From TrEMBL:
Name of the protein in its database record: DNA ligase
UniProt-listed NCBIfam families: dnlj, PRK07956.1
Organism phylogeny: Bacteria, Pseudomonadati, Pseudomonadota, Betaproteobacteria, Neisseriales
Keyword list, A-Z: DNA damage, DNA repair, DNA replication, Ligase, Magnesium, Manganese, Metal-binding, NAD, Zinc
Organism annotation: Eikenella halliae
Catalyzed reaction equations: NAD(+) + (deoxyribonucleotide)n-3'-hydroxyl + 5'-phospho-(deoxyribonucleotide)m = (deoxyribonucleotide)n+m + AMP + beta-nicotinamide D-nucleotide
Gene: ligA
Length: 796
């Protein structure tokens, strides 16, 4: 009989061997049930004797504690990138043009002084680069690539990846091994995950890469464990204490395989000379759709490590390797119909409905035609045979039409213009002219969803439905945006629920959200008993959203061109909704980072009577947090600034300054008869006179920026924070990073992602890494959360 400790050891060894056979060698030697039986025995023993638990035990793979954030890891050997070579296909023959790869080969040959080089070639995996560190055979750390110098510590998550050994295989363990490779999600696991996401009412992932990235960056490793990630090794960054050292890339791969890592079976090897590499490239390109994982090219590396060293690096990429990318995947299919889709902002997008076609590993049935100009340029019509392309994670698109396959009809003048459908190649006795069967596509003049007019602004490619929230398509999407996390943050009211509530005619406007009750919510749930708690939770989060920070509220409205950062800008400048609503367009355009297009969109939005009403209704239920406008706004909105931005008169910076100097006062701008004629002509027009009056009244009401004297105003700026740049790093004891950032921004400070000489303060929490080091090196003041809160709370 063995002792519990011995038994644990035997079980771990046996289970790890079975796992290696299953996941890495793809050759299981025992049925799953046998594995499960031993696994349960091990679990029970470990529970009884936790002191004997081994770091490489397979029970470590189920995930554990939830982290607050990822620590930073400085890579001992930087994780570099690769230069790319593209091989576009010839439009007619479909043959590859390998000029870029051949140029790479030529450089390598020249540098090494040889006529032919031995290369190693392997897939370019479309996943995420990670680095795995083993000490005495045990996985001790795993990190993402990050910026190449520092990454994130994802050890707990990586341990859940079944084909990554927790302990290296074999008797002799190197003292230190750092493996580089790619974490990805197999296509089949991706499809299953998306199926589960859909069933749970959650958003599907766009592609396996995003799914892998999202899964690897989970703070709760139990979630990662359920996601089924996969790892392929493609290199060694550090190795010491090994029996022998590899001399080539292929030897590195062989060693990695012996130690328990998966390699892309059947798709890696050594090839001498460019021609052999290119043959392999073409084979890989052909097999690409059938591979169980996504790849976007082939990585070609000089095989000899000595030659690699001789070639060295240039600006963060090796000169001994190249990512030989595949061209985007293309296929032929036919256009069955051309529909238009209406987006959240009313954008009308023509979409080609296609006969299903398999491209780049997925079946494509729709492709975007972008906008009217694009449809016209490509002249895509119903019935056309088209080339569709799918590149990486972008939406499939129609590349071009095969005009020679367009269905045609012959117009027969002798028969009074009757049309006969003909096959192109059929023998025909008709002598009339051939015409396309279908007319060119034109965007509808009214919205297919709500019937409102479709308009296209001058200079814009996109046409839009003018219905706003009157349009059901925009309504649902507008409401989804309104309730989303970065907007009003109404938890539980997601895409599915809102779409159902809109379809059930319960939700029409933002204000309706605040009139929801349990009964209304239950109309979209079948089982009433389970629905009560769910509905109550939603009502609680709706209640919590009633006093939003002003910037979030503005962002939530979904005004065109007003993203999160513009909303923050507007909120910081104007403080409250009333002021933004009244702000004349030329004043809006004076704010930093808000150009004339954005200013126009904002002013236009608030001018619409329907929007006014919708906002007033909403304000019955919601009270955005309000502050006085910032004193800087008055400086931004100085007359010499807004004078340059008036409609109907184009004043250069110089002319605006001259005019303002001549006038000397706002009153004179309105009345002085001695001002230039052009100006007097402009202001004579009633609409211009009113605008001038509005601007003046508006700017005069803004708080003065008399330096140091802001004590009487309500505005939130804080002199120790306003205008200062902050960088947040590490985990703060109580605040989340975005909360701390919001507090700083609300007090007039700026938050930046990286430390430089311009940084005024670094706020550092637990496990602060390289940013803290950089701050210390540059002598930037480092604050704790408590100190930051002190500054925020302190009177100035
Ligand atoms: S070798 C110094 N091999 O490509 C070169 N990289 O652009 C180190 N990648 O971040 C990279 N498959 O994520 C290498 N077989 C492969 C690869 C590969 C995918 C990715 C990797 C890296 C990026 C470099």
């Amino acid at each position: 009989m063995s002792t519990p400790q011995q038994r644990i050891r035997t079980l771990v060894q046996t289970l790890n061997r079975y796992a290696r056979e299953y996941y890495t060698l793809d050759a299981p030697s025992v049925p799953d049930a046998e594995y499960d039986r031993l696994y349960r025995e091990l679990e029970a023993l470990e529970a009884e004797y936790p002191q004997f638990r081994l770091p490489e035990s397979p029970t470590q793979r189920v995930g554990g504690a939830v982290l607050d954030g990822f620590e930073t890891v400085v890579h001992a050997v930087p994780m570099l990138s690769l230069n790319n070579a593209f091989s576009p296909r010839n439009d007619e023959t479909g043959a590859f043009d390998h000029a870029e790869f051949l140029a790479f080969d030529e450089r390598v040959c020249k540098e090494l002084g040889v006529s032919q080089v031995e290369y190693a070639a392997e897939p370019k995996f479309d996943g995420l680069a990670v680095s795995l560190l083993y000490q005495n055979g045990i996985l001790v750390q795993a990190a993402t690539r990050g910026d190449g110098t520092t990454g994130e510590n994802v050890t707990e998550n990586i341990k859940t990846v079944r084909n990554i050994p927790l302990k290296l295989h074999g008797e002799k363990q190197p003292a230190l091994l750092e493996v580089r490779g790619e974490v990805l999600m197999l296509k089949a696991d991706f499809a299953a995950l998306n199926q589960r996401q859909l069933e749970a009412g959650q958003k599907p992932f766009a592609n396996p890469r995003n799914a892998a990235a999202g899964s690897l960056r989970q703070l709760d490793s139990k979630i990662t464990a359920q996601r089924k990630l996969h790892f392929f090794a493609y290199g060694i960054a550090q190795l010491s204490g090994a029996e022998r050292l590899p001399e080539s890339h292929m030897e590195e791969l062989a060693l990695l395989h012996e130690l328990g890592f998966s390699l892309p079976e059947g798709y890696f090897g050594a090839y001498t000379g460019a021609a052999a590499v290119l043959r392999e490239y073409e084979r890989l390109a052909e097999h690409r759709p059938r591979l169980p994982y996504e790849i976007d090219g082939m990585v070609v590396k000089v095989n000899s490590l000595a030659e690699q060293q001789q070639l060295g690096f240039v600006s963060r990429a090796p000169r001994w390797a190249i990512a030989h990318k595949f061209p985007a995947e293309e296929a032929l299919t036919t256009v069955e119909a051309i529909d238009v889709q209406v987006g959240r902002t009313g954008a009308i997008t023509p979409v080609a409905r296609l006969a299903p076609v398999f491209v780049g590993g997925v079946t494509v049935t729709n492709a975007t035609l972008h906008n009217q100009d694009e449809v016209a340029r490509k002249d895509v019509r119903v019935g056309d045979t088209v080339v569709v392309r799918r590149a990486g994670d972008v939406i499939p698109e129609v590349v071009r039409v095969l005009l020679e396959r367009r269905p045609m009809v012959e117009k027969q003048p002798a028969l009074g213009g009757d049309l006969f459908l003909l096959r192109r190649n059929s023998q025909s006795s008709f002598s009339g002219s051939l015409e396309p069967l279908h007319e060119p596509f034109r965007l509808p003049e009214t919205c297919p969803v709500c019937g409102s007019a479709v308009e296209r602004e001058a200079g814009e490619a996109v046409a839009r439905c003018t219905g706003g929230m009157l349009c059901q398509a925009q309504r649902a999407q507008g409401l989804i945006h309104f309730a989303s996390r970065k907007a009003m943050d109404i938890a539980g009211l997601g895409d599915k629920q809102i779409e159902a509530l809109v379809a059930a005619d319960v939700l029409h406007s933002f204000a309706d959200i605040y009139q929801l009750d349990i009964a209304k919510l239950q109309t979209i749930k079948d089982s009433k008993s389970a629905a009560t708690k769910w509905a109550q939770n939603i009502l609680d989060s709706i209640a919590q959203s009633r006093t939003p920070p002003f910037a979030r509220f503005l962002f939530a409205l979904g005004i065109r061109h007003v993203g999160e950062s513009t909303a923050k800008q507007l909120a910081a400048a104007f403080g409250n909704l009333d002021t933004v609503r009244r702000a004349p367009e030329p004043i809006l355009a004076c704010l930093p980072d808000i150009g004339s297009i954005v200013a126009h969109a904002i002013a236009h939005y608030f001018r619409q009577p329907a929007q006014q009403k919708m906002l007033d209704d909403l304000l019955q239920h919601v009270t955005p947090q309000a502050a006085a406008p910032s004193p800087q706004t008055r400086a931004h909105a100085a007359p010499e600034q807004w004078l340059q931005r008036l409609p109907g008169i184009k004043l250069s910076e110089k002319r605006a300054a001259e005019l303002w100097q001549l006038a000397g006062s706002l009153h004179a701008l309105q009345t002085d008869q001695a001002l230039p004629q052009e100006w007097q002509d402009w202001r004579r027009q009633p609409a211009h006179a009113t605008l001038l009056q509005d601007i003046i009244a508006f700017t005069e009401a803004l708080p003065e920026n008399s330096a140091g004297d802001v004590s009487g105003s309500l505005h939130p700026e804080n002199s120790s924070i306003a205008g200062k740049t902050f960088v947040l790093t590490g985990t703060l004891p109580t605040l989340k990073r975005d909360q701390a950032a919001a507090l700083i921004e609300a007090a007039g400070g700026k938050v930046s992602g990286s430390v430089s000489k311009k940084t005024d303060f670094v706020v550092a929490g637990e496990a602060a890494g390289s940013k803290l080091e950089k701050a210390q090196a540059l002598g930037v003041t480092v604050l704790s959360e408590e100190e930051l809160l002190g500054m925020l709370g302190g009177a100035d």
